[in-house]
Amino acid sequence: MARRKDGIIWHLMDAPWWLSVLLAVVIYFALSYLLPSLAAESDNFIFNAIAPNLPLIAPYFTFMFLFPAPIAFFKQYKRKQSYLTTSSQIKIRKNTSPLNDLSWVEFESYIGEYFKFQGYHVKQSFSQKSDGGVDIWLTKDGELSLVQCKHWKTRKVGVQVLREMYGVMIANNASKMIIVTSGNFTSEAIAFGVDKRLWLVNGSELVHMVEDGRNFQNKPVISKPENVSVVEHRVCPSCQSKLVLRIAKRGVNTGKSFYGCSSYPKCRYTCDC
Question: Which of 47, 66, 248, 258 could link 24 by a cystine bridge, Cβ 3.0 to 4.6 Å?
């Protein structure tokens, strides 16, 4: 038995508002003119019996499919405003706290809006049903990219998740799989993602990308770091540069060690030791 929110009307409320309007126009034209015209040329008894009543019911079906349009428009406006508000808070606070304040649905919505602002065609469903490993479908310049969002505040995304996402990417013949988390990745997950078209974005990197207005696809120009200790076995999941051991010189973590991308400031990926 289908759930209440699995019907086409419910899906139209989350689709672009113009899609509802387009369907309503097509349905009205089909019921009022096209189908009666076809019935006149048909020998089908049932079709001929129903056809004269189609123009009478056309307004009702048209209204039914037009009804989701203002709701969809309001939802899209609300998502855009929420995105702008959260981005503004990120730029002010310069940390992941605005992301942590979001619900999982709001986090997925935020990531979807981010890609829209980057010029991607975004398709996403906010259903609680199993998504098959794909939260957002992206298309740009003929390429398909998939996104999986993990709104984890304390847990780290492990290697098992990446293995599953890699299989999903291959099954869908996508150019890449982007895994975005508000938290962080384990070292095993980072190592697994190397050279597998898996783009890993943790909360800290996402904050820097919002601050800088950078695109997920922009690979930084690798510059030679100065006075840093290179760690050969750890690689930045965002640009594939080497991670280096650094010491925090300011903020609440002053004096603590952390790994940072060797191509800083072009890439600002960081993770805990």
Answer: 66
Q: Same domain for 179 and 159?
A: yes
Two tokens, residue 191: 């190592």
Count of structural domains, the chain? 3
**Do residue 129 and residue 44 come from a single domain?**
no
In a domain, 86, yes or no: no
For 121-177, the DSSP string reads: EEEE---SS--TT-SEEEEETTEEEEEEEE--SSSEE-HHHHHHHHHHHHHTT-SEE
Residue pLDDT, tens place only, 197-233 = 899 999 988 998 888 765 544 443 333 444 444 444 5
Please tell me what DSSP assigns to residue 31: I
Look up the domain containing 196 and give its range: 93-217
Alpha helices, H only, 43-139: 45-50, 54-66, 68-93, 97-100, 104-117
Express each pLDDT in 130-187 by its tens digit: 566 789 999 998 899 999 999 987 889 999 999 999 999 999 999 999 999 999 999 9
Task: Please tell me whether residues 52 and 127 are part of one structural domain.
Answer: no
